[in-house]
Design a protein that fits this description.
The complex is a heterodimer. Chain A folds into two domains: about 1-75, no CATH class; about 80-355, no CATH class. In chain A, about 65% of the residues lie in helices and about 0% in strands. Chain A has helices at about 10-45, 65-75, 90-105, 135-145, 145-155, 160-190, 195-200, 205-210, 210-225, 235-240, 250-275, 285-290, 295-320, 330-355; strands at about 115, 120-125. Chain A has a two-stranded antiparallel sheet. The model of chain B has no long low-confidence stretch (mean pLDDT about 80). Chain B is extended and about 55 Å long. Chain B has helices spanning about 5-25, 30-50, 55-80, 90-115, 130-140, 140-160. In chain B, helix 1 (about 5-25) packs antiparallel against helix 2 (about 30-50) and helix 2 (about 30-50) packs antiparallel against helix 3. The relative contact order of chain B is 0.08. Classes of the chains: A mainly alpha, B mainly alpha. The interface between A and B is medium-sized, with 33 and 32 residues.
Chain lengths: ~350, ~170
């Protein structure tokens, strides 16, 4: 909890924390290249094109999987340019403001049940266990808006500024229904702690108990990450590229990094809150532990969570290439006049049902 | 090994003091607002170091995540220009500043004298979400509801004042 790890002088515990940090960091850095590749191959599939399928290793093409690596290398070695009249310091800082919260929120996602070693030592399979688990995620994902706002302002370009104003208004607006959609979950499970919520979903998934919450959460998930059909921040037909119009090289890559990492974390959160997290459907975790032992059971659980998250990542791509972009005023109307009252109604409904049992 | 709590606290306190000074010292309004965000975020870190996780998270969620974004939003919309000239200090201002500084230093002295004993770092321990909820919705229910009513009133009032009247 909190800063407790500072008081723990056990070297082994420290080593385990460092190992977990390194593992998560490496895992998260794999997601953007993979997703960018998917985001180019999937629409190609939908539109009967081929997409990038050439860049591979020697004679193996690997379905063009190394295209992203080539893109990343190109971006990293590109010259850094700041537009004239840009606020130099903030222009540099903006991508970082997006990357940091994106990586911080992964810390509370539970990737499996707490492991107990032979010597009685326990290793929780998340970086930190907070009793305010998903409030922490909401708090830090709400900090991501500064990256967009500052990037737009510091660029000294009207397209960037318009894009960032739109995006920040959109992100603040959709945070409210997002928060409201999660209150029924708290009411049902009686806790903010993500691990206890997963444990409580052994028999019935959360989506069955709170279907309305899931629908609201799903819509807000798309809006919070500024993804199509809510990608007002970029809106390439109107705003060139929105808030990152003036960015290039590594800083441009950093925006993509934070966007995909936030998408991944929200996907994990959706899987954790509504689809049983690391639990494998119809197979009890206790049976897995007894049959295969701790390590394999933990790995299987981790795989289950990744698979569930991967489905939502695919959904992001699927929706992006299927639905047209919303008009800006419609987007605001949907948030404030439909999702907000629906979220409040959902809380009332859940409380009444819970109260009458 | 010494207890790390005082070290964490004093580091945070120094950073908070620095960013608070920057809020008033920065010439560009956007920079001021961003330092205020940092300030409130660091304050949340202080809460977290005292194991008040719920308060810390709410602090980030409400102040840093929502209210300050609106500040920034308005500053960016209005495009408030950078303050160019250095503020000139006149004799009367100098007198006022001296008086305020003396009063502030005196208060600081009193506070330090009072707390010269080791820092009372008491951790609440366990989950404090429940405790906060019980206080708000059971013990202080009426005050809570009244406060929310007041806020609603203020919101409606500001909408009424700023609303443009239809042309006759």
């Amino acid at each position: 909890m909190g800063l407790n790890f500072l008081h723990d002088h056990n070297l082994l515990a420290l080593a385990i924390v460092i190992a977990k940090v390194v593992f998560l960091l490496v895992l998260l850095l794999q997601i953007p290249p993979l997703m960018i590749w998917l985001e180019r191959r999937a629409p190609a599939l939908m539109q009967r094109r081929r997409g990038p399928n050439r860049v591979g290793l020697f004679k193996w093409r690997l379905w063009g999987l190394l295209q992203s690596l080539a893109d990343a290398i190109k971006l990293i070695f590109k010259e850094e340019i700041a537009p004239a009249g840009a606020h130099k310091a903030l222009f540099q800082l903006a991508p970082l403001l997006g990357v940091i919260p994106a990586f911080v929120i992964v810390a509370v996602i539970p990737f499996g049940q707490t492991i107990t070693l032979a010597n009685g030592m326990t290793i929780p399979l998340s970086l930190t266990q907070l009793d305010v688990g998903f409030l922490f995620i909401l708090a830090f994902s709400s900090l991501g808006v500064y990256s967009v706002a500052v990037a737009g302002w510091a660029s000294n370009s009207k397209y960037s500024l318009l894009g960032s104003l739109r995006a920040s208004a959109q992100m603040i607006s959709y945070e409210i229904p997002l928060g409201l959609s999660l209150i029924p979950i708290v009411l049902i499970y009686g806790t903010f702690d993500l691990n206890s919520i997963v444990a409580a979903q052994e028999q019935v998934w959360g989506v069955v108990k709170a279907p309305l919450s899931f629908v609201i959460f799903l819509v807000c998930m798309f809006a919070e990450t500024n993804r199509a059909p809510f990608d007002m921040a970029e809106g390439e037909a109107e705003l060139v590229a929105g808030f990152h119009t003036e960015y290039g090289s590594t800083k441009f890559a950093a925006f993509f990094l934070s966007e995909y990492v936030v998408m991944f974390v929200l996907s994990c959160l959706a899987a954790t809150l509504f689809f049983g997290g690391w639990q494998i459907p119809f197979i009890s975790h206790a049976w897995l532990l007894a049959t295969f032992g701790t390590a394999v059971a933990a790995l299987l659980g981790f795989g289950a969570l990744l698979l569930k998250a991967a489905f939502f990542m695919w959904l992001y791509v699927w929706v992006r290439w299927t639905l047209p972009r919303f008009r800006y005023d419609r987007l605001m109307a949907l948030g404030w006049k439909f999702l907000l009252p629906l979220g409040l109604f959902n809380i009332l409904l859940t409380s009444v049902i819970l109260g009458s049992y | 090994m010494m207890d790390s709590a005082p070290l964490v606290f004093y580091t945070l306190a120094a950073l908070i003091t620095f960013s608070s000074i920057m809020v008033v010292a920065a010439r560009t309004p956007v920079i001021s607002a961003l330092f205020l965000v940092l300030d409130l975020f660091l304050l949340a870190c202080v809460y977290a170091s005292l194991n008040a996780n719920f308060v810390a998270v709410i602090q980030v969620l409400v102040y840093a995540g929502a209210i300050l974004v609106l500040f920034l939003f308005v500053i960016m919309m209005l495009n408030v220009p950078r303050v160019r000239s250095k503020p000139r200090i006149k004799a009367l201002d100098g007198l006022l500043i001296t008086m305020v500084m003396v009063a502030f230093l005196y208060m600081l002295y009193r506070v330090i004298a009072q707390y010269l004993s080791p820092l009372p770092v008491e951790s609440a321990g366990g989950s404090n979400t429940e405790a906060v909820g019980k206080l708000l919705f059971v013990e202080h229910l009426w005050a809570f509801e009244l406060a929310s009513f007041l806020i609603l009133l203020a919101m409606v009032a500001s909408i009424v004042i700023t609303k443009k009247r239809a042309a006759p």
